[in-house]
Write a structure and sequence with these properties.
The protein is of the alpha+beta class. Helices cover 43% and strands 27% of the residues. Strands 1-5-4-3-2 form a five-stranded mixed beta sheet. Helix 2 runs antiparallel to helix 3 and helix 3 packs antiparallel against helix 4.
């Protein structure tokens, strides 16, 4: 005679199979992503923007990473960045011309079913071309950025961002900024 634990395991397995079979009414339901899968995929997409795009070693590798992660009809809402995916790629290359050792350090990634938010820190030294019109003199930059994207068809579609421009401008050596900006930028950053 089978043991009680064997019978219990068999009953649980049978119920699980029955529930699983009735949960999907047709084959298309089996391939629909669950909300948690979509959230995880969107978080991964936000990370890929930096890992495969922004932090890639060469312009060609960065362009390839952005082409994978960013929609061809990308909507850019940063007032100083050119529009579209090609504008983004060119904008990033201008950063690299000024800051050849540019690096993005991801601090947080938050995702929903249709958005991803990444909080990150840009680091590097201005040793190449002028940055934001400021001549290079080896200025060390370390300031924070928050990017927000909507997701469409598995790619980053609309983009908004917030840069810590006061801290950046002070690190670039810009004089005459309002005292509250100077005082705030002098405080240690809590990341």
């Amino acid at each position: 005679m089978p043991s009680f634990s064997f019978l219990l395991r068999t009953a649980v397995l049978s119920i699980s199979l029955l529930v699983g079979a009735t949960a999907c009414n047709d084959d298309t339901e089996n391939v629909k992503p669950k909300a948690a899968d979509t959230i995880a995929a969107n978080a991964a997409l936000g990370r890929a923007f930096f890992e495969e795009g922004l932090n890639a070693d060469t312009p060609a590798a960065r362009a390839a990473g952005f082409t994978r992660a960013v929609s061809p009809d990308y909507q850019q809402y940063n007032a100083i960045a050119p529009p579209g995916r090609d504008g983004l790629i060119g904008f990033v290359e201008e950063f690299y011309k000024a800051i050849p050792n540019l690096n993005a350090v991801i601090r947080d990634v938050f995702a929903t079913e249709d958005r991803v938010v990444v909080r990150w820190t840009i680091t590097g030294n201005v040793t190449g071309a002028p940055f934001l019109g400021v001549a290079p003199s080896g200025q060390r930059l370390e300031f924070d950025v928050i990017d927000i994207w909507t997701i469409r068809n598995g790619q980053l579609y609309e983009h908004w961002d917030q840069f810590d421009w006061p801290r950046c401008l002070i690190q670039l050596g810009i004089q005459g900024l309002p005292a509250p900006f100077i005082e705030a930028a002098a405080r240690p950053v809590r990341r």
